[in-house]
Design brief:
Largest sheet: 7 strands, parallel
Structural class: alpha/beta
Order of helices and strands: EHEHEHEHEHEHHHE
CATH class: Alpha Beta
CATH architecture: 3-Layer(aba) Sandwich
Shape: globular
Radius of gyration: 18 Å
Length: about 270
């Protein structure tokens, strides 16, 4: 038996990067997965590549009506929602003195308001169906530590981490678990774009990561699978940092040089 047999999952921002990897893993483990994104052509191509278990529904998370329509459509089509992954996110780089209110509010709508609304709407369906459920929020190491020019991103990701804890408290009585994954540096388009704007940043990230490498998408997807599955049935309100050990390192020193060792994944 597959770990998510019979379950229905929504994964936002799932046409590329971490979201796509999570959607692929869920489908492989037996779930019917609803992918979301803004590009119809890109989304349909991604769903087709995953297979019959995947469906794409266009959704603009900056509009409440689009979120309402997404959840209603999934409910009408499948009659249940067991898993929600709030993965979609965006960022803007600007010193707090230059950050416009328009950019700040846009990032807030995508990174925090949309997960709140989806948690509320999907949570109501989970309560109605009386099967419990799992909500997984993708936050960031940026919810705990900052770098210059990231005010909008850091504020919203920290807010999403607290939304995780608060929602876990409210929804636990219904058997609905809410947890967060805080990724470190994974080789996604968003990461490569954001770090390339600062000379030497990618090299610095590698040098301050004790495991000495960027994360692989499948490693993050496997953690999401754990939180989505019954294997984490007594885990809620938690944030798991999947970041190669970076946050345990004193920023004043470099990580030890990587020694020769056998990679257990081989």
């Amino acid at each position: 038996m597959k770990r998510l047999d019979g379950m229905v999952a929504i994964v936002t921002g799932s046409t590329r990067g971490l979201g796509e990897a999570i959607a692929r893993t869920f489908a492989r483990e037996g779930a019917r997965v609803v992918l979301t994104g803004r590009s119809q052509s890109e989304g349909e191509a991604c769903a087709a590549a995953i297979g019959e278990a995947a469906t794409f529904l266009q959704c603009d998370l900056t509009h409440i009506s689009s979120i309402d329509e997404l959840v209603a459509t999934v409910d009408d089509r499948f009659g249940r929602i067991d898993i929600l992954v709030n993965n979609a996110g965006d960022l803007v780089r600007a010193n707090i003195l230059d950050l416009t209110i328009e950019d700040y509010e846009r990032i807030h709508r995508i990174n925090l308001t949309a997960p709140f609304l989806l948690t509320q709407l999907v949570g109501r369906i989970m309560v109605r169906e009386r099967r419990g459920g799992s909500i997984v929020n993708i936050t960031s190491t940026g919810s705990a530590v900052c770098r210059p020019g990231g005010t909008a991103y850091h504020v919203t990701k920290a807010g999403l981490a607290m939304l995780t804890r608060s929602a876990a408290l409210d929804l636990g009585q219904y058997g609905i678990r809410v947890n967060a994954i805080a990724p470190g540096t994974f080789a996604t388009d968003l990461m490569l774009e954001s770090t390339s704007q600062t000379q030497g940043l990618q090299e610095s990230l590698l040098s301050t990561t004790p495991l000495g490498r960027f994360g692989e998408l499948g490693e993050l997807a496997d953690v999401a699978l754990f939180f989505a599955s019954r294997e984490s049935s007594y885990v809620t309100g938690q944030s798991l940092f999947v970041e190669g050990g970076r946050l345990v390192l004193n920023p004043a020193v470099a990580a030890p040089e990587r020694a020769e060792w056998v990679d257990f994944r081989r």
